Structure formats: C-alpha cells, structure tokens
Amino acid sequence: MRMVVQVAFIVLGLAAAAALMLWDNGVPDAVADRVVPPKAIPLAVMGDSNSHAYQDRLNFSVESGQRGGINQERTFNWVEVLARLRGDEIDVGPWVTWGRSGVMVRLLDLLHLPVGRAPRKEDYLYNFAFSAMGCKELMEGKFRQAPRLVALMDREPERWRRGVVVIRTGLGEWSQFMDLQAKDPNAPELQPVIDGCVKYVGDAIRLIHASHPATRVVVVGVVNEASDPLYFDRWQNGLEFGNIEKALGRLNGALRQLADAQPNTLFFDDQAWVLARWGSRPPDGTPVYKTVTIGGTLRVTNTAGDGPNHAIMEDHHSGLAYNALWAQSLVSSLHAGFGLSLTPITDQEVARFVLPLADASLGAALRAPGS
Q: Is residue 358 situated within a structural domain?
C-alpha cells in the first residue's frame, strides 16, 4: 500500500510538472511579441540589490517596503535608467513578471525542467539580480543566476555574440567584516571572503564564455561601505578608515586581476567611481563628502533620504541621481573598454531625465500626509 501511495505521488508530481511546462516553457510571451532595434546590444545583469529593479512591485510593495518610499515610481536603479535613456541601443529585454520561487524551484531542478529566473520578480527579462544575493548565488544554491541566465542566452546565440553581461555583487559578504577590516586590513579571516567571491565570479565568466565566447563581461568592483551615511558615526579616525580602504583594495585587486585574465572581460572600478564623484573621508576619518549639482539646480549630497537631493535612499540603496550618473559612466566604460558603438549620456541628458522626476518627487513630499 505504501508503495502505491509513493508511486501515486510521483505520478502526480510529474503530471504537475508537465502542466507547468505547458503553461510556462521558461520564457514569457513578451519575448516573442517584442520588436527589438536591429543593432541594439543585449545586456544582462547578475548580482544583488544594487541592480534589482526598484519598480518591482511584486517584491517591493507598500507592505514589504518600497524602494524610494513615496517616491518609488520616480526612483530608478541604473538598469532602469539605461532602459529609458538608451533603450534603442541597449536591450535589457522586455519588462516581465517572470520566474519561480519557493519549493517549485527545487522541484523543477530535480526534474531537469526549466526554471527560467529565480526568484520570481517583476523586472527586465535579462536582469537576474535579486536583493540579498551574494557571490555564491551566481553559481550555487537554488538561485544559480549564471546557469539560468546562460540557458536564456542559449535561445538567442547569435544576438549574444554582441552582448554584454554585467556582474555586480560581493558587497553583502564583504560588509559583514567592516570592524575586522578596520582593525587589521590583512586579517586572515578576510582571505576566504576574497577567494570565494573571485571563485564564483570567475566560474560565472567561464560558464558564459563556454557557450558564448564573444559575449563581453563587466566585473564591477566593490565599494567602501563606510561611505554609506548609515556608518558616518563609525570608524572616525584615519587609521581605522585607512585600514578599511586597504582591505577593500585587496578584494578589488583580486577581482581586477581575475577580469584582466579573462577574454572579453572588463573591470569597472566602482570604488574609484565613488571617490571621483562623491569623494572620501579626509585623513582624520570624519565624513566630509562632495556635493554633486545636476542641471545647475539640484544639489545632491551623500546623505540618506528618499528625496532626490540625497545620493542614498532611506533603505541605503543608491538614489535616482546616483544611479543616473552611474549609468552614464557605465556607458562610457562600455565604449572605451570594448569599443561598442554607444552614444554617450551627456550631463545635459542626465539633467533632462533627473530634474522633472526630482520636481515631481518634491511635490509629492509636500503633499504627503504628515509632512
């Protein structure tokens, strides 16, 4: 009797999986229905919350917490900025609600059936980044961003000959050891973190190039979390802050070395970008950062808040202005590093994009209850 029950469960499981396959074969209908500019460069993303779309209402709701608070609909991450400013030249895929979550991911993997994207989210098709994902999730666990992305790329191999994959992850693991870094930048406990991130990023690059050798890959370095306003009251002396910078240099140096050793791979020095745009702490360790002016009117400071004048949002993710400037620099890097025919995003274009959204956000703040 027990064997009969077990067989019945297996049959039911297979039937359910078959039904799922008929309902969703791994790619949304929007893929077949879309019209893509013929010369657009496909761009995919893997990583963490720095790249997960802010407009994902499936995961960022009023109940669970909105990216940008009351300004969510006017606050975009760098991928969303690229889609709006260079959608004719860079193809991040159609906007879709797609993927699997929970036990269904394990079941489909067990049956060797396509999962698509994991977890389920509302985002651009080629964006596999998800909040709280680290370097390990690029290759292992139930999310396995790289194998799932490559499975999607395999459906359009010719297009991905001119494609780009951006890998931006590692901050989550690294920032857990800030106090240790402040004490000793050469602490032996840091080496496994460095080695692990380099391993998983390297494995992801090699997996991509195994079937798509011409695809370009951008490895984004890790920034100094001590520059987040959340930590302005910490490490306020030159020795501790300097130690954190030295430790970070070890991680970014290893990632740069990895990228330099791989074909068609570029290292984007995110920490250097932060230093150039927002500055750093002076030798005494006190937080004094630059003010960035957009369009001659909007002054953006390295402070936390959901208003457009803050570089960082209340939930300590990059704000609208920060992401627009970051997207601008990424386009420049893709052109300089790979020779891609992309139109530069000018400062005037950044202003035309950001300022109307900033004005609307400020108006919404004035109308907000209790403000």
A: no
